[in-house]
């Protein structure tokens, strides 16, 4: 027996429910079920796991969970909707001059890709924003329609919107959905805001070239980036943070502070460390090596190239070749630059017969690797083609795995904290669909990672199925002073390479067994870590790893000779010292030292020269009482010990 249902029950999660007509829209249903105040805060709804907007039509009993302003989802709906508003504004102003492509929301805002022969200018931005404001004030609804794909293709062909035609053709669906705001119809899945009036606080940020569908052989489009918030105050805060980030940009500071450079003559993505940057890097490396030694590691050095056969055995030629540089011939044998250090450490392992008594082996190397990155993806020190990983491989017995992971995290947190990073986002990635290794091994390794995270009191999120095919892993992102997250440390258990290289050891039972291998990098790479350090400290590094700790400034030429003496004494005492003995006004020299973010200035006039002292000027402009040169050296050494920990 069947009966045609003409009513359904619609409920709000943890709220009211009512009987409604079949085909009621989410907007109307929420209108009836929510208070006025709640409704004003609601921009979309969730049905089970799906985000829907007010245009969605309900045909069965449904529970709606309102998506309210203040949530991440609401912000994404707002930002994506604002990209439509921007596209409408651009179409209104430029008409047929532009073709539209796509406009998603991204981490901090949204973008929309346009094709237009003329570049968008700052003046255009003003005009677009003004038009967007008018659209927002008009409170235009986002309406949804569906169309047969064939009709949609014909429609967009007539409009000359070839990008949309291609998208619909590629979707290969019977019907496609469209959203219309004003007279701008866009192919889109949604969801969107109920109407444009919610988009009160937005800003266009910049325009950049972007290939259609990320393909270097296709058209270059103009990507306009923007951001949007529900609240004008939050937009203002965000724009101020962007301004601050610009000031801290490591590429800008790297040049100003003379830390590193990249030269066309050398090649893109290849770093030249300038003397000061090299000093900074040496200090980090020394600390890193010392701490590894203290934590039970041995240090290795390995070559930069190896026979191609090695990369065949390791599997890199099969799975990683697009990131590797082409082979070179040496005595008619093919060699390749290393993209990873792992096979070399395995070579150390297999260089002699191993016994269970030798484990764990903890081998660390600042290993320089080369990987191909597309030119468009290169970004300062953060994305380069040659970089030095702070790598280590631990070979251990299965019964040692959990303790080893704890030991790794111990050192990991110690190093990150020493450099001033105390906040982390931690992820544990578990077994993906395609993987190697037995169920038992995966379970044991995943449990060991969990155990170690809990031992160290780290809150973590599980990324189900996001592990590497060869084993589970922990990723740690560090938070910088602006609250931005940077991927940094990784700890990966590997069941694959020991198998590929037939690693084995003699067990207590005299039989041969396979060891477990762990890969880990704490800073990720020196390049990336230093890039983050520059932005975190805005170039004003703590005294213990500041490349220059003090600069000597004379008041007149009369003290030049004494200054040279002080300079030599302090340099001998291991202080990282510079001198500015130019015949310039003291104030000018002080300003320059401040710009160079030098922690201490040593001001030397006649009084200091006669008494054999220096007057220490702090960054904040305060002067310490004059002190003997040796006392200043002692003060610096004490501060270094404090910062470095010993
Ligand atoms: Zn959309
Ligand atoms: Zn490795």
How would you describe this protein?
The N and C termini lie far apart (83 Å). The strands form 9 sheets. The chain has an 8-stranded mixed β-sheet with strand order 18-22-23-30-27-26-24-25. The chain has a 5-stranded mixed β-sheet with strand order 2-1-7-4-5, sandwiched between helices. 36% of the residues lie in helices and 28% in strands. Helix 5 runs antiparallel to helix 6, helix 8 crosses helix 16 and helix 13 packs across helix 14. The chain contains 20 helices and 35 strands. The longest helix has 23 residues. The mean pLDDT is 95. With 646 residues, the chain is of the alpha+beta class. The structure holds zinc ion (2 copies). One zinc ion binds next to helix 3. The site of one zinc ion (ZN) has 6 residues, from helix 3.
Pairing-aware structural class of the strands and helices? alpha+beta
Helix content: 25-40%
Q: Proportion of β residues?
A: 25-35%
Give the helix tally: 20
For the secondary structure, the number of strands is 35
Q: Strands of the biggest beta sheet: in what spatial order?
A: 18-22-23-30-27-26-24-25
- The outline comes out as globular
Give the assembly state of these chains: single chain
Mean pLDDT: 95
**Uncertain residue segments:** none
What binds here, in terms of ligands, is: zinc ion
Q: State the major sheet.
A: 8 strands, mixed
- From the N-terminal CA to the C-terminal CA, the straight-line distance is 83 Å
Q: Roughly how many Å is the radius of gyration?
A: 31 Å
